[in-house]
Amino acid sequence: MPPGRTLSPNLFFPDALAASAATVFQIVARSSNGYSDARNKLYLLNVDGATSARSWHDIEASEDENEDPLNCDAISAIAFPLTAKYDPKWIRDNALGENALCQAECLARRLPLHAGMRILDLGCGKAASSIFLAREFGVEVWAADGATSPTENRKRAVALECEASVFPLRVDAHSLPFAKDFFDAVVAIDSFLYYGTDDRYLSYLVQFIKPGGFIGVVDIAFTREIRSIEDAPEYLHPQYQKHWSYVHSIEWWTQHWEKTGMVDVRCAELLPESNDLLRNYVRDRLPDQDEDSIMRAVPYSNDGLISLFCLVACKR
Ligand SMILES: C[S@@+](CC[C@H](N)C(=O)[O-])C[C@H]1O[C@@H](n2cnc3c(N)ncnc32)[C@H](O)[C@@H]1O
Q: What's the pTM value of the predicted model, to 2 decimals?
């Protein structure tokens, strides 16, 4: 073992790393069930050669926000290099759930995107993910949402100089006005739960995807299937029937798609970044948004139950 220091029972920090100044290191301690847990995470910040280590609990306990050098931007720059190019305020103002750009970046690591592909961004909200995908991957994005304004979404695309490759429209996910086999891929960031748990939905949606094309979803999941309200933890009970009864495990989602016989699941995983994204979302939102079920539950979710999943499949 190289010379170094043990910073926690399961983390060894070599002197060789301590020697490199002005670098932010993010080290993820693997939890026993295989996915990373922000509460087990140690952030090592090397400032002027002095290494400090802080746990998530330390960060949460910090009373002075300004004193916390580990703000969302510092984390994003390492874990999300593409997202880090965008103004955090723009991201926050234009995400209707957890950071839409981080989620799109996670998805893009698992779903092959090539310049010129035609993508449907379903439930795009304020089209932040559509704009991001168009700009970062040179794809053409049809930014579809049943509620948000296509005019406002176009203004955002114009402002970021991608109006020629982002096409906003207001449309319900159940009445898509496209030709069969039109898209190379469909993506849904934090929206699929609203319509995609219906057994019939995937079969409906895949008709718009070319054979060999992809569908990719990032959304909220449970790390185990919850069978009833009694099976759910106490902190979910008040909003269980309305908001949590249709949240499922990654195993449930895999079977939900595979049993259609219409797609081959290529990726089904809980995102290692889940805890960061969920907790940053809760931290960044205004108190008047606490009607949001995620906002209410996440601060109590120290049991690792709530996570984000990524599911990618290829149309047969
Ligand atoms: C939590 S927001 C996420 C929006 C965006 N993807 C983001 O990450 O910021 C969910 C979005 O799904 C849209 N949505 C829900 N049900 C829909 C449906 N049946 N058809 C089209 N859009 C729908 C909502 O209008 C909303 O904008």
A: 0.80
